[in-house]
Design a protein that fits this description.
This protein has 286 residues and is an alpha+beta fold. It is built from eleven helices and twelve strands.
Length: 286
């Protein structure tokens, strides 16, 4: 048995294994698991493992020691140490950091507040007609801070209202009213707190990029660049076929205008001659 102050060998082995797993992969991320029900967490871990992104659950003490040891060889890991807090899991993987962040973001879904939680952002209740029937509910809403009134026999919220500011605690009274209004101000799921790819640290706000919007923007930029290249006659693998097509169309137009017969111009020249003959005939008969 280890004496007082001694660390159990299994704990040392656990820290060493965690540190080695961090050093073995280019991507290391800390993932918050607070609020995720055990059954849902198991399902998420299984799905992520099948995608090649397994997460490891460990005590915060073990994670800090493992990251501290690994940071001696990879200093870029150091910023993760201050993000080991609350309920944390560890991801070590390969892949694009933004795609990995997006994968974890998709595990998150809206959930009602129960009271006592800290609002992650401003909770805004929109103005409009509610589903409530006139009665005591109006007073209850007003008491909780909601601008309720009765108009034309319906309970309405008269204006958009920030009922809880970001960082404030959601009271049970407000939480109950939000639930009755079918407003889910919180999210449950896995949240990336910080990620290191090689020697680069990424904060979550940097990784929170709409990848589909970026793809569309790159597509628009590529089309605009191609249009400029074609207009300037600048040769690239993408612009060359378009430039050849444009040159062909222009050469064909010049040949038709000059009356120069080729296998490609003979038909439009004949059509043009027929039109001119018809116009001449109308002029003579007129």
């Amino acid at each position: 048995m280890p004496g007082r102050g001694e660390v159990r060998p299994e704990k040392v082995a656990r820290v060493h294994a965690l540190a080695q797993s961090v050093l073995a992969k280019p991507v290391t991320a800390l993932v918050g698991v607070r609020g995720v029900p055990a059954s849902a967490l198991q399902s998420m871990r299984r799905e992520l493992r099948n995608r090649g992104h397994p997460i490891q659950i460990a005590t915060n003490s073990a994670l800090r020691h493992a990251l501290g040891d690994a940071a001696k060889q990879r200093p870029a890991l150091a910023p993760l140490l201050e993000r080991v807090q609350d309920q944390t899991a560890l991801l070590t993987a390969e892949g694009n950091p933004f795609a990995i962040f997006d994968e974890f973001a998709r595990t998150r879904s809206p959930t009602p507040a129960r009271g006592g939680e800290v609002a992650p952002r401003d909770i805004v209740v929109p103005a409009g007609t509610t589903s409530f029937k006139p009665g005591p509910i109006v007073g209850e809403l007003q008491h909780a801070g909601f601008p309720a009134a009765i108009e034309k026999g319906k309970v309405v919220l008269k204006k958009d209202t920030t009922i809880v500011r970001a960082g404030q605690t959601i009271s049970r009274e407000v939480a109950g009213m939000l639930t009755r209004l079918d407003i889910k101000p919180l999210e449950v799921g896995l949240a990336v707190r910080g990620l290191v790819d090689g020697e680069t640290f990424y904060a979550p706000e940097v990784l929170a990029v709409d990848l589909e919007a970026q793809r569309q923007e790159f597509g628009r930029a590529a089309r605009r660049a191609l249009g400029v290249a074609v207009e300037l006659g600048y040769l690239t693998p993408a612009s060359l076929p378009l430039l050849v097509q444009r040159a062909h169309r222009r050469a064909l137009a010049v040949a038709v205008a000059a009356g120069f017969p080729t296998p490609e111009t003979i038909e439009p020249l004949f059509v043009q001659a027929m039109k001119e003959a018809a116009a001449l005939g109308r002029a003579v008969s007129g």
